[in-house]
Structure formats: C-alpha cells, structure tokens
UniProtKB/TrEMBL annotation:
Residues 24-344 form the FAD-binding domain. GO terms for molecular function: FAD binding. Gene3D superfamilies: D-Amino Acid Oxidase, subunit A, domain 2, FAD/NAD(P)-binding domain. InterPro entries: FAD-bd, FAD/NAD-bd_sf, FAD_aromatic-hydroxylase. Pfam families: FAD_binding_3 (PF01494). This is FAD-dependent oxidoreductase.
Amino acid sequence: MVDSGRRRDVPDRRAGPAALDQAAGPALACYLSRAGYSVTVVERAAALRDSGYAVDFRGDAVSVLAELGILDEVRGHRTGMRGTTLVDDDGVAVDQWGPDVFGGDLEVPKRALTAILHRLTADTVTYIFGDTITALRQQESGVAVEFAHRPPSKFDLVVGADGMYSAVRALAFGPHERFLRHLGMSGAGFSTANFLGLDHTGLLQPSGTTAVYLFGGDPDDRLTVSLSFATESPELDRRDRRAQEDAVRSAFAGRGWEIPRLLDAMSRADDYYFASTGQVEVDQWHRGRVVLVGDAGYCAAPTSGSGTSQALIGARTLARALAGSGYEDAFTAYERQLRPFVAQNQAAGRAAASMFGGGTVGAP
C-alpha cells in the first residue's frame, strides 16, 4: 500500500496511494513522486514479489513505459514467444496464432517488471513490506489510516491499488461480493518437465467447457500448464488443494491426448495454484478522499489480455488528473477519461472467457 505523500510546492497537501499492485501501484508512485509528492508504499508481502508468469503491454501502455524511462530495459527482458498452435482433441494442429495474440506488443516475465518498477522508485519512494491496512476513517482534512503492525497515520488521499481482492476497496466501498463478477471459469496452473519440447511456443486445446494451454519458454526445460473449466462460482478458490484437484480431474475425465499425463503432473507440482477468473465492477471509483486504480477498481480478467496495460494507463491517467486540479475534480476527470477504455477491455475479457472453458457470466 502506498502510504503518505507531501507535495513540496503545496504545503500540508499529502497524498497516499494505498496498497501495492505490481504495475499500477509502483507506476503511480513514480508519477506522483516526480510531481513532488513524498510517497510510501506498504505491501502485505514480506519482500518484493518474485512470482507470476508473463505480462504483456498493448497499445498506449508502451508509451507509459517510455514516459517512465524504462522501455528499453523492459524490452531487454522479452520472453521471445513465437506464437500458439491450436490443436483438436487428438492434439492435431488446426490453426496457428501469432505471438501478439497472447503476448501483445511486448511480453516480459512478471518478476522482471516488478523488479524494474521497484528499482525505478526505490530512491524516491519509501517501501514498507510485511504490513497491511486495517481501517480507514475519512475526515474533513484527510484520511486516518490504521495498519496491522505500524502506528496509525493520517493522509490527504488514499489510493487502493491492491488488486482484485482489494483491502482498501473492502474498507471504503463495501464487501467483495458487491463488486466481483465471476466469468464462469476456474482453473489450475503449475509447471512440469517440458516433455513436449516446446521452444518459446504454446499449445491451446479448447474443447467444450474445458481448455488446456501449454507453453515452453525460459527455462527451456519447464512446461507451464493451465487447465481451465467451466464453474458457476469461485467457491473452489476457498477449498483445499485436494478438492480443487478433484474438480479438475472431474472436468477433464475421459479426455485423451496428453491430459492424463498432465493430471498426473498436477498432483506432483510444487508450484501449483488455483484461481477463478472474474472482473471488478464498481459504479464509482472514488469515495471522498479514497480512489481505486488498476484491478482494485476495474479488473478486466486475464482473458482480456489487457490487465497490465490497463493498470499502467490507469496510473498515468490518475496522476495527470491530480497534477491538474484538486482531488475532487481530479477523481471525476480520471473516471470520465478512463471508463470507455475499461468498458472495452472488460467486454473483451467476457467474450474471451468462453474460449478457455467459461460458462454463464454472472452479474456481481
């Protein structure tokens, strides 16, 4: 979470984007620190996150990287993926997609982006790891914030940039259930030995209400696996691993090709994870001095292919709005400018969910 900020040219004006999103949070912190704010980022994790597979940048998001001065450095971490082959139930190729379909204009490992953005802001932004926000009380002159471990403090503004299950949003706007839209699909992810010999390429096998996506990159001896299937709710996210694996096996029961081998590898994987795909829909992204940016306010789902790009563009839009006016007008301008872009991305995310096994799209 981004904690306090004081704009040096405006005495006693303090701003605090709150809670770290791996793209929106540090990008916004960079923009605000350059504008004269003193920013502190508070992150729940004990250390800088070094997880995740790949993120991609599309369209105007590339110009955000250029503005931040990191475009060439980010380009140096390209994944080098060369495309994806669609296969039928027997594993026979039926179509070929270029690298831009999943990789956008530029694709890099998530850990590389996280490290670059942290390095970019490390000298101008204070990072506090291993803590989280527990209470918000809005007052006429600012927001009183309580934390799990550090003493309470007061800030001019609080920005929730803490992802789909945002603690800031829950405290300032209401429970998650009011804002989360399940897109009808869940799935398991893990890695195993690259027994297919995929060399910076992917395989996608969509079949009815299930989909298998495999890709091999760096390191070249590992195969990344995604097994997704239709679900009616994200209830499985709260179940234990055994129940989740049972659901995956049930969804893929009787399937041929490499499915039995992949299901066997799933049980042995030490990097197994399970997640449901959803979106965040909030009718207004700000409440008083609290505002949301990135997935906390408008997650478009991984199926949109625009999550990181949307987060970066959202951070820039909010920073520019704050630079031009007081927070009330800035928050209004931010929403007015960004909502059409978000609506387009969320529509794409809903449409693409069906290709990966998504079923009926439920309302929040």
